[in-house]
Write a structure and sequence with these properties.
2 helices; alpha+beta; 138 residues; 8-stranded antiparallel sheet; 16% helix; globular
């Protein structure tokens, strides 16, 4: 079931990616290990995920971003981005996954007839924050 949901999420990202407004970037709000996803490779592309390239530096046309933040409470991110929580899941591996929507982020995808543009996967000692979804593994 989890694999099916992950496949559906990736499919939704591929179909639902639109240009984001006002150059939103996680780097304006958080500090951590940063990843940028783009549809085209550049000199900074280090990983080809098959549907997009993972760049360690800002892309001129990103389709998403993620950031790993150590010792961070997810509610702080939700408050900082004025996001509304749409769904929360507790996975067997100890992760809590939160799906939310923020007006600060222009890009969104439709998941179960709801617009989602922020995903957090939180463990005991770190969180991964991504828009419109976390495109890498978590």
């Amino acid at each position: 079931m989890k694999k099916l949901f992950a496949i559906m999420a990736v499919f939704a990202v591929l179909i639902g990616c639109y240009s984001h407004k006002d150059k939103f970037t996680l780097q304006d709000y958080f500090a951590g290990t940063y990843y940028c996803y783009s549809q085209t490779a550049n000199n900074n592309a280090s990983v080809d995920l098959g549907f997009c390239f993972l760049n360690y530096e800002e892309s001129s046309n990103p389709i998403g971003e993620s950031m790993v933040i150590e010792n961070y409470e997810p509610i702080s991110a939700i408050e900082k981005l004025n996001a509304n929580i749409l769904k929360t899941e507790h996975l067997d591996n100890g992760a809590t996954v939160i799906y939310a929507y923020s007006n600060k982020i222009g890009t969104s995808v439709d998941l179960n007839d709801k617009k989602v543009n922020l995903q957090l996967a939180c463990y005991e000692d770190y969180c991964i924050i991504g828009w419109p979804l976390i495109l890498g593994s978590f």
